[in-house]
Amino acid sequence: MLFGKEHVKRYVETDGEEGHDWRGTTVAILTTTGRKSGEKRSTPLIYQPYGDAYLLVASQGGAPDHPLWYKNLSADPEVELQIKGDRFKARARTATPEERPDMWRTMTATWPDYDVYTTKTTREIPVVVIERV
To answer: How far, CA to CA in Å, does 129 sit from each of 2, 9, 124?
Structure first.
């Protein structure tokens, strides 16, 4: 299955029966509001629960710039997250420098390539905290 629009479509249509479990990890659908277009944008992203919150990583495979979804939630932190059949409104924020080390370990435990991505870029790859509202 592709990791993109088709992934989002199948995930939403099947309440995550297709697409939640992906390559040995778990995927949620994050919906942000385009900072320029104002349109809703849905992106499949690896996630992990963390206490009452959920974590995402704005890695873009180690690209030199942040992914568009991260730029969008930085401009408007009101987002929606879907985990399987559970769709909910949430607020997104970047992990603080104090929180980040433990959160990073949580995410690299589920997707070790995040550590590899850090070697491909000079930017600090953000860990995003998603909290229900």
So the answer is: 25, 24, 15
